[in-house]
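stage 2 :: seqdesign
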């Protein structure tokens, strides 16, 4: 099939999501990332509609974009004014862009109730607005707002609106499902009718190519976009990760690979497609949102395998349970461990951890049995792979304890109703025969315990100093027991170079937290040993001497 041009509106439509607000610098960085992805058009916003967009269009001129063309957005001119006198249109021209998109009414209901002008006058507004922009701008796209609803209400008039834009010189007529309520079967029918010659009231076929701009209120934005492309749309609009107002827009992270890999439609190069996951996560981070793990193609779980039967088959041939190779979109295969796991999962995870386990080793059965027993007690290792690696190493005799806990105490004291509670933890540990007894405060009891534990250990293991706690989650496992319920604590730690997850389970939230904290520390120290940081015998002796002398 032919070529489809990708039109990204993350900076305009995407920023209209209620939990997203991009700064000017954010928008510039995303523009560069979209250019790397191979997007053809980047819609930057409304010139002069607000200080942020005004600054963006001024600063974006300094970017050296390889492929993407920045687009200014606006509307048709106001009723009762000439296009040449309309400030919004003039700002688009003065923005210096080579491409612009303006939306206009195509639903007679909106023309009567929103614009409050005769239907014929709206046609003139559309035609004149497009014509004015074409005098100064190389490419002008007409966004036919509410087109599908307008067509269902008055097909003849909706088509006249497209004709008016075409007569004005529009380079593409973008059919917009503004309310996101059009289902695929209806969309197919309407697009086919639009393409027919003299089908409705003997109107001539509209020669200007068409595009699609779909919203996701019925969970059909991606499907509708792909269908439209299959029916001849040359331009597909959407946003990274589907961000947008209400339920969002068509998700380009699904649209792009589906077009290229499933439908054989060229839109980006192979190298650009391989940057898709990177672009998805980049925009997520800039938006200060959590990445959606179950997102198709680019999510962490998109190529994650949990059931033992699946893993066994995937290891023999990935195509058994994967619809594409994850590397094509910059993703990777993951094997999860759970109570559904079998020997294949364990072998695969062992290879990831660089642990050698023979396929016929009896240890495999022991690990699987232990795993299932632990998960029955509430442990989960999908997000705590560091804890699972420690579990495997313990089973194989590859683990060693770096310290022994003698005891800890956590106090939470609230001295008056209006004061914030005081959290203090005291801990005593034994490191190679040396007793360390220390205390620390924190923002909460777990934070205080974490501070006290690391304060006690950093004296012996300075490599722990860069370790930070990035995330802390508590989940009640057994509902119905109230405050006596068992809880699972998941902790994400990092040292600036990598991140790792650990887990703890107990009826006592402090004990569960302690388990996860200890796993986090032991994982870091074992990694340091593997990398040789702690294998130097002379360093070990020197550290031991410093410890005995009470030096840091």
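stage 2 :: out
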């Amino acid at each position: 099939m032919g070529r489809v041009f990708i039109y990204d509106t993350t900076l305009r439509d995407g920023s209209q999501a209620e939990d997203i607000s991009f700064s000017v610098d954010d928008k510039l960085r995303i523009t560069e990332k979209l250019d790397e992805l191979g997007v053809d058009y980047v819609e930057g916003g409304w010139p002069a509609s607000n200080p942020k967009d005004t600054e963006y269009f001024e600063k974006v001129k300094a970017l050296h974009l390889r492929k993407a063309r920045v687009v200014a957005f606006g509307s048709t001119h106001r009723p009762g004014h000439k296009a040449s006198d309309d400030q919004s249109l003039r700002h688009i021209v003065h923005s210096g862009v080579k491409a612009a998109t303006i939306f206009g009414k195509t639903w007679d209901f909106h023309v009567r109730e929103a614009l409050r002008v005769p239907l014929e006058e709206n046609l003139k507004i559309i035609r004149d607005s497009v014509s004015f922009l074409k005098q100064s701008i190389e490419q002008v796209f007409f966004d036919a707002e509410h087109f599908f609803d307008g067509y269902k209400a008055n097909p003849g008039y909706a088509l006249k609106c497209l004709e008016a834009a075409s007569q004005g010189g529009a380079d593409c007529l973008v059919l917009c499902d503004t309310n996101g309520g059009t289902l695929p079967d209806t969309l197919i029918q309407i697009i086919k009718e639009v393409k027919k010659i003299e089908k409705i009231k003997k109107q001539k076929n509209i020669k200007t190519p068409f595009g699609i701009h779909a919203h996701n209120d019925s969970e059909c934005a991606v499907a509708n976009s792909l269908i439209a492309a299959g029916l001849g749309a040359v331009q597909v609009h959407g946003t990274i990760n589907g961000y947008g107002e209400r339920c969002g827009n068509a998700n380009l992270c699904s649209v792009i690979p589906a077009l290229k890999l499933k439908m054989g439609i060229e839109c980006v190069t192979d190298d650009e497609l391989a940057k898709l996951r990177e672009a998805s996560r980049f925009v997520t981070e800039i938006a200060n949102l959590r990445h959606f793990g179950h997102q198709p193609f680019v999510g962490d779980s998109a190529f994650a395998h949990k059931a033992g039967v699946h893993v066994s088959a995937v290891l023999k041939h990935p195509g058994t349970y994967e619809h594409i190779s994850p590397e094509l979109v910059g993703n990777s295969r993951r094997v999860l461990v759970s109570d559904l796991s079998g020997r294949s999962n364990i072998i695969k995870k062992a290879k990831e951890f660089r642990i050698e386990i023979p396929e016929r080793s009896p240890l495999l059965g022991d690990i699987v049995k232990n795993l299932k027993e632990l998960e029955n007690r509430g442990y989960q290792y999908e997000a705590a792979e560091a804890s699972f690696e420690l579990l495997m190493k313990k089973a194989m005799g590859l683990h060693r304890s770096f310290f022994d806990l003698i005891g800890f105490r956590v106090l939470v004291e609230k001295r008056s109703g209006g004061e914030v509670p005081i959290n203090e933890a005291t801990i005593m540990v034994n490191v190679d025969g040396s007793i360390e007894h220390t205390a620390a405060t924190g923002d909460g009891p777990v934070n205080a315990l974490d501070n006290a534990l690391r304060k006690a250990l950093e004296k012996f293991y300075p490599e722990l100093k860069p370790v930070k706690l990035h995330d802390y989650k508590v989940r009640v496992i057994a509902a119905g027991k109230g405050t006596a319920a068992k809880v699972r604590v998941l902790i994400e730690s990092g040292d600036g170079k990598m991140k790792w997850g650990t887990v703890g389970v107990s009826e006592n939230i402090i004990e569960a937290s302690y388990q996860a904290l200890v796993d986090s520390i032991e994982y870091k120290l074992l990694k340091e040993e593997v990398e040789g940081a702690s294998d130097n015998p002379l360093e070990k002796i020197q550290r031991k001497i410093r410890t005995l002398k009470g030096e840091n």
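stage 3 :: structure notes
- The domain at 5-268 is CATH 3.20.20.70 (TIM Barrel).
- The first helix runs from residue 24 to 37.
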